[in-house]
Amino acid sequence: MTRSLVIKVTAGADSPERANQALTVAAAAVASGVAVSLWLTGEAAWFAVPGGSERFPALEHATPVTDLLEVVRAGGRVTLCTQCAARRGLTQDDLLEGIRIAGAPAFVEEVTTDGVQALVY
Fold it and tell me: Which candidate, 69, 3, 5, 70, places its Cα nearest to that of 40?
C-alpha cells in the first residue's frame, strides 16, 4: 500500500511559524517518498499565487516557504480551496503552474481513502 499524507494549512503570514511547519512537514514527506496532497486554505491561499510565498516573513532556523512549496509542487499535489480562492478573487489563471482549485468534496474524498493520514495546521 502506498503511504499518503493530506495536509491542510490554514495559516499564512498571519501565523508564520504554523504555516512554515505545515510546509516543512509536506516537503519532508515528499522527500521521503510519501504521496503528499497539500491543501491551501484561509490565509495560506496566497501561497498559490506568483510571488505569494516571497512576501512571507523569513523565520530563523527555517527553510524559506518558497523552497518548501517548490518541493511539494514538484513531487506532490497542491490544491487551493474553492471558497478561499473565491473570497480572494482568485481564479485558476492567477495560480502558480500545477496548483488546482477544488472544494470540500475533493478534500473529503482524499482524507477518507484507506491508508491516508491527514494533518491540519
Answer: 69
The DSSP result for the chain, as a single string, is: ---EEEEEE--STTSHHHHHHHHHHHHHHHHTT-EEEEEE-GGGGGGGSTTTTTTSPP-TTS--HHHHHHHHHHHSEEEEEHHHHHHTT--GGGSPTTEEEE-HHHHHHHHTSTTEEEEE-
CATH number at residue 51: 3.40.1260.10
Q: How many domains does the chain have?
A: 1
Q: What is the pTM of this model?
A: 0.94
- Residue 85: name the closest of 98, 72, 94 by CA: 94
pLDDT tens digit sequence for 42-67? 999 999 999 998 888 889 999 999 99
Cβ neighbours of 85 (radius 10 Å)? 23
19 is in which domain, residue-wise? 4-120
